[in-house]
Design goal:
mainly beta, four-stranded mixed sheet, 1 helix, globular
Length: about 100
């Protein structure tokens, strides 16, 4: 690992990649999430494409502040929903979030 200019640790260039089937948790940023686990992103689909390839039992954790968690957001057929939402209030499983 090496320190990125912004201060976090990152793999050194040339580090061996792990197989995507070994990923058990995916931390997913978003502009907003809803109580069903739907994510509003930038509209390019990079995260949705990646999340279709992780194992079915992979935890998909949307990372957001409480003010950007909404009752319902628009969703499309190709969108991959989160299994959990993480905010300053804690980590909560979808379905256990207050409505």
């Amino acid at each position: 690992m090496e320190q990125h200019p912004y201060g976090y640790a990152q793999p050194v260039a040339g580090t061996a990649e792990i197989s995507i089937d070994r990923i058990s948790v995916a931390l997913v940023p978003g502009l907003a999430f809803d109580l069903k686990g739907n994510r509003l992103g930038q509209g390019v689909g990079y995260y949705d494409e990646l999340l279709t390839r992780v194992p079915d039992d992979c935890l998909r954790v949307g990372v957001i502040t409480d003010e950007f968690i909404f009752q319902e957001l628009p969703a499309e057929a190709h969108d991959v929903s989160m299994t959990h939402i993480a905010s300053e209030s804690g980590v909560t499983a979808i379905g256990e979030l207050p409505t």
